[in-house]
Amino acid sequence: MILRLYATLIFCWDVLIILVQFFLTLLQSLFHQIRAPKAKCLTGEVAAVVGSGRGVGYDLALQLAALGVKVACIDVNATDNELLVKKIHSSGGVASAFECDVTSKVEVGRTVAAIEGSLGPISMLFHSCNVPSARSLVTEAPPIETTLNVGVVSHFLLLEAILPKMKKMAHGHIVFLTSVAGVSGLKHQMPLAVSQFAVQGLYESTLEELRIEKRQHTIHTTLVHIYPFIITDHCLNDIRLRISSAFGRIRSDEAAQRIIAGVRRNELEISIPKYLLFVSHLLRLLPRRASLLLRELIDTGILQQVHDVTSMAQFEQDGKRLHGKKILCVGLCNIDIIQVCDAYPAEDSDQRCQSNRWQRGGNASNNCTVLANLGARCELLASFSDAKMFHFALDDLRERKIAHDHCVYHRGAQVPLSTVWLSLATGSRTIVHSNPDLPELTFEDFRRINLQDYAWIHFEGRRNTSTIVQMIRSIVEWNERPENQSCKVKISVELEKPRHSNLDLLVDGVDVVFVGKDFARFLGHDSAREAIAGLKQLHPGSYIIICPWGERDTVAIDRQDRWFTQPTYPPEVIRDSLGAGDTFVAGCILKLAEEEPPGSLSVVLEFASRVAGQKLAIFGFDGIKRD
């Protein structure tokens, strides 16, 4: 009896202590809502930022460096990472770039060792490489294995390599970043939602492990929920929110600033925006039907633009010819600033132009414009600047229904510009190009596309020749698989700029090679026929070569080494020759892609020459159509 009474008193005492602690904790939380706790100093910390190449990870790295943190920038995209480190160095910060596949245990171990040797022991870990972009959440079905490896397995590998050393130092902070998919799931994104829920479970388990080991006061953890649809980035103009005025927009640098502020106060859980956490908890408390109604109210997606009947009919007709697949053009997208003059301005002179305009340019970009005008489903893959000026090009792509979901945006890069003088006296043009720091596409950028979506992939010859060769060989390898024999992707390349490295693009498996007059002359050839013969001798094989020679004619050779000559169809008055070559190339690609079984190459050349003739008679590309 006495023992029972004693046990009861002990239990009551424990309950009382817990209640007192509970109310003290509640009062402390309320106080911190009014007056935030003092932010800890981060100077001298060593932070590993995983996924630093783009998005919130990029801004986290920049802002941490500004606070005196030594930043290890970790990303698979070496180009973006190096640019970020250069930017940090220019601001007086300390940072190093590390290229790492975080799904590989060997690479993670090697990278962690390299960071410790370069910057010192890691005391902070920010894992942001599985926070998706808004567009990917609503348009792309992520591959299951890749999603789970990047979103879950990489966390375990990083913790395994870093957490034991934090425990030895009795100092550290681990930040887990997840998206809204880990709060309430997301339609059509099951693998992503599962990986994000798993990160929350990993966070809870890590927190509990540290509590049991009584390390929660020396090693801190923070879970961050990000709602990607309100993070302003380069491709959100057609993302819709049901109640857009209520949600507003948050810049990614502002989101990073809020995350760092919460980390400095050792907050356990943060949401961007702040009310997201409350909404997610509310959804779980409400009955299922009420929760679904609230989700419908806060709906998100892609704005659907209505095509006119003629365009829709043309798209459907072309889709049947290409089996519903797209034509992908890989290369440059820039802005052309065009001045139309009576004649070329003399040096050191001052004259007024007749008219001027801005126009989205670049060979691959122009190819897409013409293909879209001719009714083809097409897509552009290029490097983009995130500058406000480039919104002009983005708006034009959207207006013309040219897909560009896989394009790569580069923070802080300048917009490539081309200044063009058009002479009304001759119809010819002079161009001065400017592209100081926009990186070329990488093989990792290309690997993100699904080859099954395309009937034809066209490559503009650029300075990243070795990378383009990798891209082409990956398509050839895909084409050779037994399961893809009935849906092979056709490959074409354009050799235009006068550089020897373009010859490396003559890769086995390429179906069509377009040779520009400038490149042919650079190689020492005086005619199209001579250029084609030289290239065939240099790289024998069963492939098509097409060489337009300006206003003279076009010469081509088919797979059976049969020669073709096609006259041009210039208009009575040549108004604008800018993009005429790109128009001809696009016409050839479309006609070759549609010809099934393949007809004579003369039909293709005839079609492309007439389309190019249309282009010469008009300013810009509007008005190009099928005869």
UniProtKB/TrEMBL annotation:
EC category: transferase
InterPro entries documented for this protein: KHK (IPR034093), NAD(P)-bd_dom_sf (IPR036291), PfkB_dom (IPR011611), Ribokinase-like (IPR029056), SDR_fam (IPR002347)
Name of one Pfam family that matches: adh_short
Keywords: ATP-binding, Carbohydrate metabolism, Kinase, Membrane, Nucleotide-binding, Oxidoreductase, Transferase, Transmembrane, Transmembrane helix
GO molecular function terms listed in the Swiss-Prot or TrEMBL record: ATP binding; ketohexokinase activity; oxidoreductase activity, acting on the CH-OH group of donors, NAD or NADP as acceptor
TM regions (residue ranges): 6-27
Entry-linked Gene3D superfamilies: 3.40.1190.20, NAD(P)-binding Rossmann-like Domain
Keyword Protein transport included in the entry's annotation: no
One GO term describing the cellular component: lipid droplet
Function per UniProt: Catalyzes the phosphorylation of the ketose sugar fructose to fructose-1-phosphate.
Family, similarity comment: Belongs to the carbohydrate kinase PfkB family.
This protein's name: Ketohexokinase
